[in-house]
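Sample intake sheet
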Amino acid sequence: MKTITKEINLLDIADIEQAVSNHLGKKVTISEIDCSLAYCIPMGSGKASGMYLELTIGDDFCDSLDLFFDDELNGHYLDGKPLCLDEPWLAINEIFNFDVSVFKSFDSWTDSSD
């Protein structure tokens, strides 16, 4: 029998606050962020292929592709470590290292675009 261990790096409150603040050029706290988690299941294949976050702060918007996606590595990374967002489908507690009730609002949905 062969055992394979995979490291999954969860997002902390500070990770999100710092990334959003840096992207928008102003200090943002987690309680100001409306967060939507999108599970990607393309209609063509019907197979889960990853996730991304949409973050709205008042009239400002960004997503995890803006904040954490590394084009060279073709994935979501933070401080050189892969984030769990590139996994096909994870429960919320396997994505965030905190209770999502600290967001201004939180929801999830399925993105079926190809």
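Comment: The longest helix spans residues 13-24. The CA atoms of residues 10 and 95 lie 5 Å apart.
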